[in-house]
Amino acid sequence: MKARRLTALIALPVAVALGASACGTGGSTSNNSSTGGIVTIGIAEPEHLVPSNTVETNGFQVISALYTPLVKFDDQGKSVFDQAAASSIDSSDKKVWTVKLRPDMTFHDGTKVTASSYVKAWNYAAYGPNAQVGTDFFSRIQGYDDLQSADGKATPKAKEMSGLKAVDDATLQITLAKPFAEWEKVLGYNVFYPLPDAAFAGDGTLNKTFEDNPVGDGPFQMKGSWNHNQSINVAKYANYPLAKPKVDEIDFKIYQDQDTMYADLQAGNLDVQPQLPSDKLASAETDLGDRLKKTPSSYFGFITVPTYDPAYKPDIRKAISMAINRQEIVDKIFQGAYTPATSWVSPIVQGARDNTCGDACKFDPTAAKQLYTQAGGVPGNKIQLFYNADGGHKEWVDAVCNQVSKNLGVQCTGAPVAQFADLRKQARSHSLQGLLRGAWAFDYPSIEDYLTPLYKTGASSNDSQYSNPAFDQDLDKADQATDEAKAIQGYQAAEDIIAKDMPTIPMWFKQNIYGYSTSMKNVDMDLFANVDVMTLERN
Amino acid sequence: MSELETIVLSEGSSSAGVPGGDGGGKPRSLAGDAWRDLRRNPVFWVAGLLVLIFLVMAVAPRVYTSISPTACDLSDSQLPPSAQHWFGTDIQGCDVYAHTVYGARASILVGVLSTLLAGVLALAVGMAAGFYGGWVDAILARILDIVLGIPLLLAAIVFSRSFGTRNIGIWPVVGVLGILGWTTAARVVRASVITAKQQDYVQAARMLGASNGRIMIRHILPNAIAPVTVVLTIALGVFISTEATLSFLGAGLKPPTISWGIDISGAQGRFYQAPWPLLFPAGFLALTVLAFSMLGEAVREAFDPRLR
Amino acid sequence: MFRYVVRRLLQMILVFFGTTFIVYALMFLGASDPIQALAGERPVSPQLRIQLTAQYHLDDPFIVQYLRYMGNLLRGDFGTQISGRSIGAILEQAWPFTIRLALMSLLIVIIFGIGAGLIAGTRRNGIFDHTTLILTLVVIGIPVFVLGFTLQYLLGVKWGIADPSVQAGSGLGAYILPAIILGSLALATSVRLTRTSIVENLRADYVRTAKAKGLPRRRVVGVHVLRNSLIPVVTFLGITVGDLMAGAIVTEKIFNIPGVGFQLAQGIRIQDGPTVVAIVSILVIIYLLANLIVDVLYAVLDPRIRYE
């Protein structure tokens, strides 16, 4: 008898609790009008929202709504200016560039956007002691080196770059240290956004509160502050001079885990998931149907070979490459959403050519085994493929290793480390003994961006430690070419050198794979893998 | 480690440790009584059999299957259970049954070895604290607090990182679990040592001139072992389960080791398309934990005279 | 009693420094390149590296960094991450979520744990008792993330009776499912603990006396037995408070709760020593205070216990 009363006492709160939890759903997908409305987009917590400090996708996604770039790109990677902050970008010698700004752009606080807005923002970004993560992008501008401190403690010689000048309110003049044909494209990257005067404190640093409340010149402005780890809300900017967005507000919901984001998408608590994890692709095709979209992306996945390690001479690299059945991995692991890569440049940029890899990227286990044995194999007959455990790479790495093991008769194992930082450090110090997973997405739509940062001697993302003076020279020559076509030809010649030496083994080109809920009518993604906030539309 | 705290307290060890005499001599010893009870308890036999099955699986996996867990063919990815693949295949095309059988070794070894390590540490610390008392006890209690304050995830990552990129097998995980997991068992040992210390026969031995060491090993240790064994069998289950959680957090065992934890956390993402690569290792893990825990429960009930 | 409390508080200081030192050392040992970790996979320019290293004294020897950090910590300055964000501000935003989660979890453990344990104990060897035993051991055997994701899918997505994640403005109701997952192990254990305690006490002499005196069973169990049985449970619950806060890493990840567990896991992952040590130092203090309160409460509940 006592037990029954107790059972009742327990059952009652349970019922109440479950009822209360159902009532606990926030009103995040409410407020629908036929146009306008609020859209919720899932992201991870951004590192920064100050443009010059933002180099990762989450921050980029948010500030692409808050700012307008100097130049935009169409689907083929060509520059377009009709919805950009600049009306034109010209240079006759590819060294001195003249940027003509639209006169009617304003910041969300009402002040005008002038050339000096850009000058102040870029000098701030370039100045060493400000420790901006995107500072490297300004290194081509003349005078950049004077803003760097030799040892981190001494004050730099200057606070302003000599190559940067505001000729008048609507004209910006940039002088590069050396001619660079692709500079116009570089300016489309998010680190080049302008900053209002109100962003700066008296001493030239940024106001402490600016990062949580960034003020830009884009189609949306901040609504409230950055709610760390929770959300960032933006609302339409009434005085935007260019085409207006279709929705009224965007609520960027911040998630720790992509699987949880997907659960919310399924439950209808989230409108857009910009990146579906590969292990959910199969169920997404059933769950979402045609609300699952795939669009071209600049992402290039590859395997980095430690060129400093004599065990991995070029023939071994070719053998490994030929032992991998890329198509099968794409089919089974990625549900066919990727494309096997047979060149080192993503097909979405101009100058990309198909199959520069040739036979070396063709799946041929017999030839691979032959080449491998002829080349003498690797010491200990063991290969390790290192990757960072936090990126969802385990499945394809294991698949690659299984294929290589089977087809070459070698023992290949995936070797996870906690995060990428560990790997890069070892690669730099030449202590990494094995292959390394690599990936690249462009900062600007140019073939050059797939070559210089990855393969030039000492370049920042050159994890293979590849160093080839002939290649470097080809790049320099192409950089200085006076017209686009010649430049592209030059870069293509450089890619041919890479094809011969194979410091990286191309694996696949990815697509943007995203999904949205039934409340959305239209969701597009651009080449930078950002949801296009201008074309978002609710049902 | 937190879960262990809870486990040991659940066994009502507020007054643990029953003086069992010094073995031999008496015709009806506690151990003899306990064994008689155990023999008549069906739970003991069932749990014991399960434990035996899994131990054989860990030691000699080939008894259970002739398929190699590394014979993976991507074209056979995610096949449902069939005659050739009793448990189906996973995303890589590996046979799930073979993976589960071979995974028993790493998972159970991790459990057994870390339990042994925790047990040794618990006995050492608990006996010293209980026997010497005073400031020794106070210091050891504070060391115990410090160990409890260290996050498991942090220690696991640091341990696995400190060996660079060489793979040294299960030892980092065993080390972490053992070094962070002895605290609860130590408390149990200490409590039973304190009780045993006050028994008449211990006073007698001391008066007869026995050294501290001799007293600790011959008289006190046998009493401390019984209750702590129960705690440790349950801890073993928790350790095996924690290995899986560490794999999920990216700080667990590494390939080419095969373990249930690695398989479970790897299969989690695709669970709704293909549940079997997760269900079978998880099922085996749960069964193993269940078996060890029930064995511990049966032993405890047999040794507890208050439950007669 | 007063001297005991003062002594414990002094020892607490020792433990605080011991734990923070060890955790700081672990972070230092485990750090390979915190600046690269800041940029993820993007390259870090040499200028930026020089700048950040100088700004955050990353090149100083370990002991200098530690002393500087502790000096600031004791003045209430939690420091800054190398991304420039104030750790104090981050923690201030994160704590309320974890506290809500942990307290709700504790509430569930207390209500349902003690309630179910009471039933199981008063009806020993009944169906309820055996069911709770099996459930307990199964809960230990299923890794917490499997339980979490499965219930999240079933209750949150498939049947839609709960929220799959905790939204920014959601009420307490959304915390119920995560609280159950977080406390699952503690819940299972408190059921068993209460049950064992009650079973033991039901056989005590004073219960027989009370029944012989004619007291109604309800009063005997509800007043006398329960009060005595709660002693080990209270001890266990005090420890659980600290555990829940630290163990929230997995639960917060699955249910997207922006609390301290997430910050801890993130800090460990990106090699952010100051954040991890800051969180651990707070957790240690909470844990030690909870322990002290429990030990004092223990003396209050059981008048036979005296501290000098």
Task: Tell me the layout of helices and strands.
The complex is a heterotrimer of chains A (539), B (308) and C (308).
Chain A: H1 2-23, E1 38-43, H2 57-66, E2 72-73, E3 79-80, E4 86-90, E5 96-101, H3 115-126, E6 164-168, E7 171-175, H4 183-186, E8 220-222, E9 231-236, E10 249-254, H5 258-267, E11 272-273, H6 281-288, E12 292-304, H7 314-322, H8 326-332, E13 339-340, H9 365-374, E14 382-388, H10 394-408, E15 411-417, H11 420-428, E16 435-440, H12 452-455, H13 469-479, H14 484-501, E17 504-516, E18 520-522, E19 537-538
Chain B: H1 2-10, H2 30-40, H3 42-59, H4 96-132, H5 134-149, H6 152-161, H7 171-181, H8 183-197, H9 200-207, H10 212-248, H11 260-267, H12 276-303
Helix pairs in contact in B: 1-8, 1-10, 2-12, 3-4, 3-12, 4-5, 4-7, 4-8, 4-10, 4-12, 6-7, 8-10, 9-10, 10-11, 10-12, 11-12
Chain C: H1 2-30, H2 34-39, H3 46-55, H4 62-74, H5 87-122, H6 127-141, H7 144-158, H8 176-182, H9 184-202, H10 205-212, H11 217-246, H12 248-255, H13 260-269, H14 273-301
Gist of the model:
The complex is a heterotrimer of chains A (539), B (308) and C (308). In chain B, 68% of the residues lie in helices and 0% in strands.
Give a description of the structure.
The complex is a heterotrimer of chains A (539), B (308) and C (308). Chain A has 539 residues and is of the alpha+beta class. Chain A has helices at residues 2-23, 57-66, 115-126, 183-186, 258-267, 281-288, 314-322, 326-332, 365-374, 394-408, 420-428, 452-455, 469-479, 484-501; strands at residues 38-43, 72-73, 79-80, 86-90, 96-101, 164-168, 171-175, 220-222, 231-236, 249-254, 272-273, 292-304, 339-340, 382-388, 411-417, 435-440, 504-516, 520-522, 537-538. In chain A, a hairpin with a 5-residue loop joins strand 4 (86-90) and strand 5. In chain A, helix 13 runs antiparallel to helix 14. Chain A is globular. Chain B is mostly helical. Chain B is 68% helix and 0% strand. Chain B contains twelve helices and no strands. In chain B, helix 10 runs parallel beside helix 11. The relative contact order of chain B is 0.18. Chain C has 14 helices and no strands.
